[in-house]
């Protein structure tokens, strides 16, 4: 089994949790969301570091950052009643398309 891809997926989820917790931390003034945000960011970094043992950084980092970005944007719209305009929706689609393109590239270290 390819555990490195599980680590990437967990890093994306942790990144999303951390970003949403930041929203509720009110500038780190609320203890529970602050601890959740910091813990989730730490977990995200750790999962990325595990994925980077066998996957190239040029693949892992954009997937992590893009997946987190798209996930936070979608959840902001769905759960926080943020506006979903045409440009925001197009941006999310483009980020996801970029992630798909990166996954279609060979992952060998020489190319």
What does this 3D model show about the protein?
There is one protein chain. By secondary structure, this protein is mainly alpha-helical. The protein has helices at 3-25, 31-51, 57-79, 86-104. The chain is flat. The chain has one domain (3-104).
Attribute tags:
111 residues; mainly alpha; 4 helices; 77% helix; 0% strand
Lay out the secondary structure:
Layout: H1 3-25, H2 31-51, H3 57-79, H4 86-104
Helix pairs in contact: 1-2, 1-3, 3-4
Which structural class fits the helix and strand makeup? mainly alpha
Please report the distance between the alpha carbons of the first and last residues. 24 Å
Task: Count the beta strands.
Answer: 0
Enumerate how many helices there are, as a single number. 4
Shape label: flat
What percent strand? Answer: under 5%
Helix share bin: over 70%
- The number of distinct structural domains comes to 1
User: Could you report the average pLDDT, rounded to the nearest whole number?
Assistant: 90
In short:
The protein has 111 residues and is an all-alpha fold. The protein has one domain. The protein has helices at residues 3-25, 31-51, 57-79, 86-104.
């Amino acid at each position: 089994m390819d555990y490195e891809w599980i680590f990437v997926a967990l890093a994306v989820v942790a990144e999303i949790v951390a970003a949403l917790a930041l929203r509720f931390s009110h500038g780190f003034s609320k203890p529970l969301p602050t601890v959740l945000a910091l813990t989730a960011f730490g977990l995200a970094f750790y999962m990325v570091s595990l994925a980077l043992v066998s996957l190239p950084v040029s693949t892992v980092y954009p997937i992590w950052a893009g997946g987190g970005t798209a996930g936070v944007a979608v959840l902001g719209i769905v759960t926080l009643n943020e506006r979903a305009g045409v440009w925001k929706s197009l941006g999310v689609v483009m980020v996801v398309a970029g992630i798909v393109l990166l996954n279609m590239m060979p992952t060998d270290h020489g190319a």
